[in-house]
Every structure is written in structure tokens, then in C-alpha cells.
Write a structure and sequence with these properties.
Helix content is 35%, strand content 10%. It is of the alpha/beta class. It is globular, with a radius of gyration of 23 Å. It holds the Pfam family Glyco_transf_29. Pathway: Protein modification; protein glycosylation.
Length: 393
């Protein structure tokens, strides 16, 4: 009896140590800056944006090595034949074997003709309100949207009208459409706004999401919709999660926006992001809503939105993608000018060498001509050579 006690205590302490290490691995101890600190840092470090073709190729190579988006982003008959076991990426030890019932639901092969030219990934951030970015978004060759966002007339000036791929989380099917158990017409009608697009669903991420996703597939098929349902490949989602975790994004799950940005970086020659601003204030430090259509906050701790933003902002800084924040394209000198002179921001979503415009009320703003040649501080940088936390105390 006396000999077992120390061993028992040792086992308890060992178990506690393992739990603590696991907790620190999942939720590392560091302090993220406040919203205001990030805004000031973005303004402080902002310089001329220049496309970095080398960085684009290097980052696409990194994504291909880890995740191969072009072949693996969707479950297809080619990569998931009958008998293949699909392991859920959001749940341990849960899987689904492809059988004669599920196999016919998959597309034959990746349906996209890659590489796509210019892609716009549209987040749902409140910074899109009164941005006037809709026309610029609609100029893209391929538009990706998150979580069945509203595209009614009151929003189209800011977010555009075109959609080529839209994600639909099973939780939306459950909450907004009662799991399609009663009336399916409301779901079919609500999907018409997205036109002949691909509906991208994580059917094999978590077990409770499988049946709602399959019901959504059958509902659209039965209504003879012109939309194609693509099921997200859990192997791809898992690999993308590991990829970003290794770069400092620690969360229970990546946001849909970061998944889509990763997909676009693997499929497209040029990537532009809109509405990726997860902070409570804009560049002029004015309060903004969480989404452009509501102010419902996500569950605490489920996503790591500031960490994701820092990674994407770095890719913007290195010219790998272009991030549009509100009415300007990270037009930081404009934002500083607006703040200094208490001006309202311009109403246009601008691109090109001249970043300041006359605002909607007619207030004059200086035109800032941008040089095409980067400064020595802006030489082409490989996107994997930067750690957003390295300089943080």
C-alpha cells in the first residue's frame, strides 16, 4: 500500500503536466495587441504596395507541398473512390467511408480551370460598410464569398453582386433553415442570389454537419438549381489548419475566410481580399460593426481572428496578395491625413497609383502619387521569412 502511493502521486502529476503542455500547445501564452495597437501598427508600417511575383510563386509552392489546393480542395470521384475513409478534420476518431450512396454526390474531378486570373475573396467584415467596393469586387474573374452572406440591393454597392463560389456552413443550414426538415423552398429561394455558383460545404468536418450538408445537396438537386455543391475535402482542411498553426495561428479552428484565402492563393494568379478586418475600430479609430450586415460576435476563443489578420497583412506587405480595408487599399498615408485633418474617408474603393479621392460629401483630399519602384525596405521578400510575433513583447 505504501509503495503504491508515490507511484500514484507521480502518475497524477505526470497527467497534470501533460494536460498543461497540451493546453499551452493549443493556447500558447502571449499577448495579442489591442485593436487600437494593431491599427496604429498598420498605419505606422504601411508603405507602397507592389505585386511580388516571386512571393506569389513561393507561397503557392508552400501550399502545394502541404495541401495541394488544386487537386485536393474538394472531395471528388478521383481523389475519393468507393471504399476510401474520410476522416473528419474537426473531430477525432470519426470517419465516413465512401459508399454507393455518397460516391454519386461527388464531382468527377476538380471543376475549376486553374490557374484562375484574378480572384476576389470577400469577407463579411463591418469595414465594408459604405466602402463602395462592390464594383471593384465584381471586376474580378472569380469571386469567393463566406457563409451565405446577404447580397440584397442595400449592400451591393459595397460588396458587389457576382459570386462564383460561396461557402455554406452546416450551422447556417441548421439555424436559418431548420436543417431543411420542414420547408425547403426558403433555402432554394435564398440561394438564387448567388447565381450559377459552386456551393462549398464542409460536410465531413464534424459529424453533426454531415446530414444537413447532404440535405442541402439533395434540396438543390431536386429543385434543379443551376448551382453545384462541392464538399470540402477534410484532408485539405486538416492540412491547411496545420500549415497556419505552424505559422502562429492558434485556434480551435481557422475561420472560413482564412480557408478561402488559402484556397485562392493556391488557385489564382492574383488575390485581393475585402472585408478582412476583425477589429472593433477602423483605420480612423471609429467604431464599426463586426459584420457589414449585423453586429453578432463569434464565440469567444473559437477563431483567432487577429492572428489570422497579421498573417494576411504580412502577405499584403510582401506583395503576395492585396488587402483592401474599407474604402481604401491599405491607403495608410490617406488614413493618416484623414485622421490629422478630421476628414471622412473617401467613398470609393480605389486601386492604382493615386490612393486618395474626394469623399462622398465633396471634401477635398490631397492626391498622393505612388512610385512604381519599391524602396529598399520594400524589396521582394519571401512570404515565409517573417514572424509576426518576433518583435512583440
Amino acid at each position: 500500500m505504501f509503495l503504491r502511493c508515490p507511484r500514484s502521486k507521480l502518475s497524477v502529476w505526470a497527467a497534470l503536466c501533460i494536460l498543461v503542455l497540451c493546453w499551452l500547445y493549443i493556447y500558447p501564452v502571449y499577448r495579442l495587441p489591442s485593436d487600437k495597437e494593431i491599427v496604429n501598427e498598420v498605419l505606422r508600417q504601411g508603405q507602397v504596395w507592389k505585386k511580388n511575383q516571386t512571393g506569389i510563386h513561393l507561397f503557392r509552392k508552400l501550399l502545394k507541398e502541404c495541401c495541394d489546393p488544386r487537386k485536393m480542395f474538394a472531395v471528388t470521384k478521383e481523389n475519393s473512390p468507393i471504399g476510401k475513409v474520410l476522416w473528419y478534420d474537426g473531430e477525432l476518431y470519426h470517419s465516413r467511408t465512401v459508399n454507393n450512396d455518397t460516391y454519386p454526390l461527388f464531382v468527377q474531378e476538380t471543376p475549376l480551370q486553374v490557374p484562375l486570373k484574378r480572384c476576389a475573396v470577400v469577407g463579411n467584415g463591418g469595414v465594408l460598410k459604405r466602402s463602395g467596393c462592390g464594383r471593384d469586387i465584381d471586376r474580378a474573374n472569380f469571386v469567393l464569398r463566406c457563409n451565405l452572406p446577404p447580397l440584397s440591393k442595400e449592400y451591393t454597392k459595397d460588396v458587389g453582386t457576382r459570386t462564383h463560389l460561396v461557402t455554406a456552413n452546416p450551422s447556417i443550414i441548421e439555424k436559418r433553415f431548420q436543417n431543411l426538415l420542414w420547408s425547403r423552398k426558403a433555402f432554394v429561394d435564398s440561394m438564387k442570389v448567388y447565381g450559377p455558383s459552386y456551393v462549398y460545404m464542409p460536410a465531413f468536418s464534424m459529424k453533426p454537419g454531415t446530414e444537413p450538408s447532404l440535405r442541402a445537396y439533395h434540396t438543390l438537386a431536386d429543385s434543379r438549381s443551376n448551382q453545384t455543391v462541392l464538399f470540402a475535402n477534410p484532408d485539405f482542411l486538416r492540412s491547411v489548419g496545420r500549415f497556419w498553426k505552424g505559422r502562429g495561428v492558434h485556434a480551435k479552428r481557422l475561420s472560413t475566410g482564412l480557408f478561402l484565402a488559402s484556397l485562392a492563393l493556391g488557385l489564382c494568379d492574383e488575390v485581393a481580399l475585402y472585408g478582412f478586418w476583425p477589429f472593433s475600430v477602423d483605420l480612423q479609430e471609429r467604431p464599426i460593426s463586426h459584420h457589414y450586415y449585423d453586429n453578432v460576435l463569434p464565440f469567444n476563443g473559437f477563431h483567432a481572428m487577429p492572428e489570422e489578420f497579421l498573417q494576411l497583412w504580412h502577405l499584403h506587405k510582401t506583395g503576395t496578395l492585396r488587402m483592401h480595408i474599407g474604402s481604401v487599399v491599405l491607403n495608410l498615408e490617406c488614413a493618416l491625413l484623414q485622421r490629422a485633418q478630421h476628414m471622412q474617408p473617401g467613398s470609393l474603393c480605389l486601386i492604382g497609383p493615386q490612393d486618395c479621392a474626394v469623399d462622398a460629401a465633396g471634401a477635398g483630399m490631397h492626391m498622393i502619387d505612388r512610385a512604381e519602384t519599391p524602396t529598399s525596405d520594400e524589396a521582394e521578400v519571401a512570404p515565409d521569412d517573417w514572424n509576426p510575433y518576433s518583435a512583440r513583447s
